[in-house]
Design a protein that fits this description.
The protein has a six-stranded antiparallel sheet with strand order 15-14-11-12-13-16. Strands 3-2-1-4-5 form a five-stranded parallel sheet. The chain is α/β, with parallel strands linked by helices and 352 residues long. The chain has helices at residues 15-23, 58-72, 83-88, 90-95, 106-113, 115-124, 127-130, 153-165, 193-196, 206-213, 264-277, 307-310, 317-327, and strands at 3-9, 29-36, 49-52, 76-79, 99-100, 147-150, 169-174, 184-186, 203-204, 222-227, 232-240, 243-252, 258-260, 281-290, 293-300, 341-343. Helix 1 packs across helix 13 and helix 5 packs across helix 6 (115-124).
Length: 352
């Protein structure tokens, strides 16, 4: 059995599960390398070799990655940090025999990594939403939330007023962010005394937001959006060259409860997005429902932090993504997912 060397750079802690899932197969032996800026990262416990990653300017990062790959004879590189910069240099990795576990080319990675560009693209290509050939049961395939992109307090307030005047709740998030970082919901009740005796919340008052944003003339771009009250789904996907091979929708319930739900509509949406953006390997589509209308939040051009939960369906997505990268076989044996499973998670100690 040939051993393959795979490297994860500065991933989030739940990559601990991703790495173990990749190792849990009977076909390929892996030697896993990890680098992380956190010297106490739990993912090191799943790695065969690890290094502390220092802060490196983005314009120097690709050279660091190439040097690391050469030094350790890496076969597969699964990037997270600076994924766009790395994808833009994909040919340099190919030249040294390294396969990148990235779901699309640099042009589409740029679109998917920038929430404003992604929404602008969908809005400008309205056939993705409204073309009758892209409808299921007579409905539009999906929609996008009402949104504005702003970088100063005055424009933020105008965007808030415009959206709220249409009867929507308002939220905002950075154009570039991961894992919900910077996401907030504007709610005037967040300024009440009762809120001080409640759990920490993502809700803030408009005055508080404007006071903070006014501390600078301009700031990094924010998307001011309608807040959708319906259920949120995280759809973990496997694909090859624009063809969806598997999709597991995770419905986010209260607390940490998740329902792995059988949803033909969400699988169809994932299939169309896979085709349009020519996606491969592993990625994640996030959707929220406004009544019965699905609205796209984003496509993550990498495995999601919760993909290991979706693997309870019986589909080992991290390993199969790597196998697709290595074999490029569209007829890969794909198990039928076990769905309609309700799951939760608990904290577990890991000795460092």
């Amino acid at each position: 059995m040939n051993k393959k060397r795979i490297w994860f750079n500065n991933w989030f802690n739940t990559a601990y599960h991703i790495i173990n899932l990749i190792k849990q197969n009977s076909e390929i032996e892996f030697e896993v390398f990890g680098t992380n800026r956190n010297p106490n990262s739990v993912i090191f416990k799943a790695c065969d070799y690890y290094e502390i990653e220092r802060m490196i300017p983005e314009d120097e990062y690709v050279d660091f990655c190439l040097d690391f790959c050469k030094k350790h004879q890496i076969d597969i590189f699964a990037p997270r940090t600076n994924i766009l910069t790395i994808t833009q240099s994909s040919q340099r990795f190919e030249e040294i025999g390294v396969k990148l576990l990235t779901c699309c080319d640099s042009q589409n990675t740029k679109l998917l990594s920038d929430k404003a560009l992604f929404y602008d693209h969908l809005r400008q290509n309205t056939d993705l939403i409204s073309n009758p050939s892209h409808r299921l049961d007579g409905k539009s395939l999906f929609n996008i939330p009402k949104y504005y992109v702003v970088n100063n307090a005055q424009d933020f307030e105008k965007a808030y007023t415009s959206i709220s005047n249409e009867g929507f709740k308002v939220c905002f998030k950075p154009v570039h962010s991961e894992g919900g970082a910077g996401f907030r919901i504007i709610d005037e009740s967040a300024g009440s005394i009762d809120s001080l005796f409640s759990f920490a919340s993502l809700r803030v008052t408009l005055d508080d937001v404007l006071n903070r944003l006014s501390q600078r003339d301009t700031f990094k771009s924010l998307m001011v959006m309608e807040f959708i009250d319906g259920y949120e789904y995280s759809v973990d996907c496997l694909a090859l060259e624009g063809k969806l091979l598997a999709a597991v929708p995770r419905k986010k319930l209260d607390g940490r409860a998740r329902l792995l739900q059988d949803s033909p509509e969400l699988r169809y949406i994932a299939s169309e997005l896979t085709r349009v953006f020519n996606l491969s390997y592993a990625f994640n589509v996030q959707v929220r429902y406004d009544s019965d209308c699905p609205k796209i939040l984003e496509i993550n051009p990498r495995m999601s932090g919760g993909v290991w939960i979706s693997c309870l369906s019986g589909i080992n997505m991290p390993y199969l993504a790597v196998k697709l990268l290595l074999d490029r076989d569209p007829d890969i044996m794909m198990p039928e997912p076990k769905l309609d499973i309700l799951v939760s998670q608990i904290e577990k100690e890991v000795l460092l």
